[in-house]
């Protein structure tokens, strides 16, 4: 589910001279396959496997400390809590892929929530229209940042740092010095995090569709690579991966059904991940994004409009930050100066960047995928959830989150240094 680079890139094994493409493992026996998989774990492209191992350890530790951690109720709440930060982190992935950073996403999220609340509650605008305006505002902010960066040459770090302050200030101005705006608890936005599909069929249907979709995509990719004379995965490996995914997907569906069913928020998040991954991996535009992450001058020589791609990536980041902000407002059922200051202080920003990087997206550009966010945000939110159950102070949570982020970035840097010593890109 989590990819580490551009479509068709690496990890498929060598091609034997004069013998056509070799598959990745089983024709040489289980021992050869095990050795190959052992080598792939050391590869920077296989970092998500280590994240999965780390996530399992986190869950085991917190379950041992508090048996409520893996309860259906807590896991269902966890699946909703990851969505706001996760959506923001998906936008961060698009910007990181072109070797840039967006420091304004926390403030843009707060601005979107405040804009919706002011328009809907204070001015009586219909919820649907207020949502559209709030999301459009995030897109406009992203375009503003992108234009300053791509066309005027102002560093993205400076542009978005200024944006962090500007949009946070505008949010506070919209809400007033001491005003809290409560949104309708039965309304459209509030239902984003409170709505669940109680019928068991819904969760199992999503699990089945996801598993079938993965199998079909993997099988089609195998057929394309085989027809083109490129290395391809053996059918047995595809079957094994599909089986493991099915076990995880149906176990998750069963757990959700033991509480209130499939959360609407989680469903929306999964749809965003699928669409984002498709755009990046299966479209010409996505290939341009990865090419730009590989090198600006090489992308220019290939005929790519670097400026347009850069502006588009910041627009995506701003749009998803605004959508994530609506989910944050939905969970709180309010917008207030307190929450706006929290966004401006950087916690949402840090958690979003941490989710992207921990999942496997590189801060050095050109490597990562939206699916990496799912693992990363699960790690971040699992730590927060477990410590919340244990009553750990916020200060300790901040330090642990910062330590996890530092470790992820250090691992990324070390893996790239090791790859450079081996003569790999």
Structural class: mainly alpha
Q: What is the gyration radius calculated from CA atoms?
A: 22 Å
Mean pLDDT: 84
- Our measurement of the CA-to-CA distance between the termini, rounded to an integer number of angstroms, reads 23 Å
Care to count the β-strands? 6
Q: Strand sequence of the main sheet, in spatial order?
A: 1-2
- Could you say which overall geometry the principal axes of the C-alpha atoms support? globular
Q: β content, as a range? A: under 5%
Question: What do you see in this structure?
Answer:
- It is found in: Cell membrane.
- Residues 14-25 have a biased composition (Low complexity).
- Strands 1-2 form a two-stranded antiparallel sheet. Strands 3-6 form a two-stranded antiparallel sheet.
- The chain is an all-alpha fold.
- It has helices at residues 30-42, 47-65, 72-97, 105-122, 127-150, 156-175, 188-194, 200-227, 235-257, 264-282, 284-294, 296-301, 306-332, 337-345, 347-359, 371-390, 394-421; strands spanning 15-16, 20-21, 181-182, 196-197, 262-263, 334-335.
- Residues 1-30 have low confidence and may be disordered.
- Helices cover 73% and strands 3% of the residues.
- The longest helix is centred in the middle third of the chain and has 28 residues, at 200-227.
- The chain is built from 17 helices and six strands.
- It is globular, with a radius of gyration of 22 Å.
- Helix 2 packs parallel to helix 16, helix 3 packs across helix 16 (371-390) and helix 15 (347-359) packs parallel to helix 17.
- Strand 1 and strand 2 (20-21) form a beta hairpin.
